[in-house]
Amino acid sequence: MLNFQVFICNASKAFGIIFLTFFFIVIIVQKGICQKSIPNIINAAKISSKINFDGNPEDSLWKSTLHISNFTQRELDFGKPGSEKTETAILYDKNNLYFAVWCYQKSNNPITAKYLHRDFDYFSDDNFKIFISSLNDHRNGYLFVINPNGARADMEISGSNVNQDWNGVWDAKTIRTSEGWFAEIVIPFNTLQFKKDSVQTWAVNFERDIQSLKEVDLWQGWSRDYDITNFVSAGILSGIKNIGYSRNFELKPYGLAGFQNETGTNTIYPAKIGGDLNVNLSPTLKLNLTVNADFAQVEADQIPVNLTRFNVLYPEKREFFLEGYNYFQFGLGNSSYLFYTRQIGFEQLSPVPVIGGARLFGKIGNSNIGLLNLETGSKDSIPATNNTVVRYKYDIGSQSYIGGIMTSHINSLGANQVLGIDGQYATSTFLKDKNLSLSGLIAGSIDNYKIRYNSLSYKAGYSYLNDLISSYASISSIQQNFDPALGFLYRSDYTSINGYLDLEPRWFSKYGVQKLDISPTTFSYFITQNTGKLESWNNLTRPFGVYLKDGGGFLFDLYQSYDRLDIPFVLAPNAMIPVGQYYMHNTEFLFSTSTNKKVWVQAGYNWGTYYGGTIQTISLSGSINLSKHFNMNADYSYNYIQLPSAKITVNELAPFINYAFNTRLDLSLFAQWNTLNNIMQCNFRIHWIPTIGTDLYAVYDMGYNSLNNLDYLKPQTSEGVFKLIWRFVF
Question: What pTM does this model have?
């Protein structure tokens, strides 16, 4: 009972912070309105002749089209016109949407363009962004990004969720002259989802970033409380009429050949064929079918040094699951998810073949639908398994929803189902122009068709994420017997309170400061749900942080934590942390130079106590840009841990090297060395895009499972794959 009282006391303190935050909001925040610049409507003109798609928007079709140029600064000189002239215009034909971009730039402001490859790091390059909400529902959209070299990046947007791993079918070409850089972009209509109306009205916005000036210019909604993906502040794209999916089917067959070798076994030579068929049932609803799915071309995961006793969440990178990924999301809080796609294709921590199945996702009116059914095959003692997910969300108002989810995992060893409901109230017009959301959920699991005691999960909370003040607070629980077989649990058997308060005042601007970062608290309290005892708590206080106008920064953080171990924690083969209660405190400094330079460095030093001992951590990250073709970056960390029973030195190095011949052909090498896990791995990949949507991969992996007596010429595992994925549309 005493521990429960402590929990209630801490809860009262946490929600006291919530009310204090709102006090700051009401007293300090200046009310405003969502910025609109006239014109806020851009018309697309229909064409019947073919565009000369070469990156130079100077032919007669573009000259006769209405250009918009009313861009306004968000950074650094808020509210002023862009210091450099920017223009864009839009055309369309039966199958495609075309954009022309004019980014004029004076010679004394150098163009920054370090990258050439697909999915480049656009935060450190000059770039032009196009945000499109073709459903115009204030919830779903796409972001397309190009740099002056013609490198491309893209992502799907669903509310506040961003799917950066999505790769759409579109193309871009650029040129440079003494006046600046210029581009042409083509986006096929069947890359987008839109309502089946004779007259289309979409939400659209544009952003230009000039790294040499650290300038961010937007066409509409340049509030510092938003970014370009804010639906409410976007402009209007009109003029598109009588379009549809003239090509309803996309067939992507693949062929694969390779070899696999492991020390002590015979080399095998796998060969596979399979493919995906994507069917546009309507402009807003898509069906994905897959047969004999294969993911050999997927980039290798970086295995981090994990000094905690909890699981590591790896991102989904498999193409079949990426498009429409947000239609299936159901977050439980504390980095846990009711549905985690990477559970499909793995059983009992072992990979199993994905025989085939289907996904259906999209919108019908106000209904957001996600259906998935995939069958995985048997392997050794692991039986064939059926995996099913049904996700539904109904739009309420301009940005809110209520929804539910069901997951099912069935094989001959047992069955697991999970049911959940959730809802969110969201607005970007709180206090006229601020972001606010209130959310809640509850879910329960069923094992072998029986409901177990303590098998629920719930969460309720709010977030206020804005420029000057950001805050968040929630209460959540994952009970002892809650078991989502298709989900991911970072930790379980807890009830928790989480929250933070962060202030970013824009002081000392005449001294080169963009803004400060002061965080009184970022906290979490965890009570063991089954016993009611305090299990752990963490708090971060940031007395001082600064972001400079040149892109660099400095952070000073103080950490305090408590952890109760009921079972020993095995940190390394020679180091076990015994049962006990541990109070820890750490101090950290973090320094970063500007990412737009050819050489970028970030360095951090953390020291303090660690489970009855001490720890020192040095972290280094950096990148070197030799040319637009050749880029290198690396992460390194060094940990020295002194425990009463052992001394441990942990090193991790993860270099990544990329050489891009052009925007469609690149070579990459990713390696990682991790002494805590006693591994070293290398991944070499060639990626060629003969035509947009078609991919050829050559991949070679080698791994060393033990770093003792290492023979570099004899890896413990090696694998080579040649894979061709061809795209047909009809």
Answer: 0.89
